[in-house]
Amino acid sequence: MELFCDVVVIGTGPAGLQAAIHAARKKVKVVVLGKIHKSSAYNAHIENYCCIPGITGVDLIEQGRIQAQQAGAEFIDEDVISIKPSGNGFEIQTESGRVISCLAVVFAMGVSRKRLGVPGEKEFLGKGVSYCVECDANFFRNKPVAVIGCESAAVSGAFTMLFYSHEVHLICDSRLRVTENLDNQVRNSSVIIHENTRVIKILGDEKGVTGVLLDNGNIINVEGVFIELGAKGAIELAASLGVQLDPETLQFIVTNKRQETNVPGVYAAGDICGPPWQIAKAVGEGCVAGIEAASYVRKIKTAE
Question: What pTM was estimated for this model as a whole?
Fold first, then answer.
């Protein structure tokens, strides 16, 4: 089954929903791909978004979907498995085998958080387990925490937590894999480093996380666990089109102020464009990306 539209938005988080709202309001045909519950905002409690005193991620995302649908956007709850250039646009294939042709694409699927795959991880998500230090650090003020990972994302997260927590553990299943400068910085900080050991279980009770169990039998008592293992998926799709990535990390898409990438017709917004991991930033970039993608489509149609 093949579907034709003007703009495809890949991602159903705040950036994608805002892009869909603004593109659809420009009277172009918009299709949104992705699964609502996969947004990192879906399980969050949001308290630092301007003019909103406090709201659950579920409520925010569901309301955004309603607004986008009212503006005219169509939602297909499937993941994208491939994307390639086709004529003066793009051809996208979803997990069901559906093929969607479009003139412009907005990448807004955030960054996929790698899971540890240990007992307690799923059970305590949102109750002490987080995949975003910058999003949730404030909830663990003056509480002991663990940051799990071996690369720069984990070390950076540990440094951030030093501003909030009196006790920060950095747990790595090998040796730290960072630059010499970053390695020296973290070893000379108050971060407690545990190398060559692996978390095999996240412990907790009805109130939330209470600690982590290591493969050497030791238990570290913490109230927060930040899993910072890197990103994949979204970047692979973008890279397949030749989209330019951040040269230092190769983890984020490079855009200009119009949220344009180096590939005509391809835009990006939100976490996939890099930190800070904040809804306010994602929504702002989504707004710009949606407007610009719709304008691009209308120019192409006018020229035809």
Answer: 0.70
